[in-house]
Amino acid sequence: MSIAVLDGGTYYHHRALHGERYRSYFAEVIYILDLPRVHLDKFSALVVPDRLHPSPLLAAREQIVHYLAHGGTVVAFGESQAHRWLPGVTWTFRRTNFWWWKTPGVGLGLYAATPEHPLFQYVSLNDATWHYHGVLTPPSGATPIISVAGDGVLLYEDTVSTPGRLVVSSLDPFYHYGSHFMPVTERFLEKFLEWLKSDDKPSR
Q: Average model confidence (pLDDT) for the chain?
């Protein structure tokens, strides 16, 4: 699979996208302001990392929707206001518990909503467990992958809202890996990108 990824120009994007650890997963790293001049149809997937400023994404909304309409895959991570520039995305803020792991017996309540999903051949729940800043409500017919007990969804796959595929998450692994903070995110990104690289067909 040929994967393009957007670069917001921050220090954490630079380390995650241009460093030796993950650079080989991406066919092209696209600076976000150069996106309007790129023909996305040559890529199998477009990865939108967490914590990109939403303004250029809003400006590129028509381009991204066009890409999805022609069968493309868009992977969008958290804190980039995807509900404003992607179809079918509903995001709800949650107060973040950064220190849940310091209290014995306390967890985040994550569970595999669709245990048979191919992603779990690569990523475990432990790999996705650090914290979250919000939850998602998948559109009808989409597949929840990782959910929070009694609350919403942290990651889902949507092949119903467009002719393409959306993989949407409220997690922020690029920021934490790029900031040298939260070691689990290194493992999550490696395994997630391995899955994406190997997965050539939307799971309709």
A: 94
Share of the chain above pLDDT 90, in %: 89
Six-digit token string for 204: 């309709």
| Number of residues written out for the chain | 204
Contact in structure between 16 and 48 (CB atoms under 8 Å)? no
184 pLDDT above the threshold of 90: yes
Structure tokens at 117: 């999903």
CB 21 within 8 A of CB 43: no
CA 155 to chain centre: 8
- Tokens 């990824």, located at residue: 5
- SS3 state at 153: strand
Name the token pair of 61.
Answer: 């909304």
Residue 106: how many CB atoms within 10 A of its CB? 11
Task: Give the whole-angstrom CA distance, residue 63 versus residue 6.
Answer: 14
**Are 174 and 50 contacting, i.e. CB atoms less than 8 angstroms apart?**
yes
Read off the tokens for 75: 């992977």
Both tokens of 135, joined, read 């939850």
Q: What is the H or E stretch that residue 177 is in? A: helix 173-178
Tokens of 155: 């990651």
**Does residue 185 contact residue 193 with C-beta atoms inside 8 Å?**
no
The two three-digit tokens of residue 166, written as one number: 């959306």
One-letter identity of residue 134? G
Strand partners, 3: 45
The answer to whether residues 184 and 132 touch, using CB atoms and an 8 Å cutoff, is: no
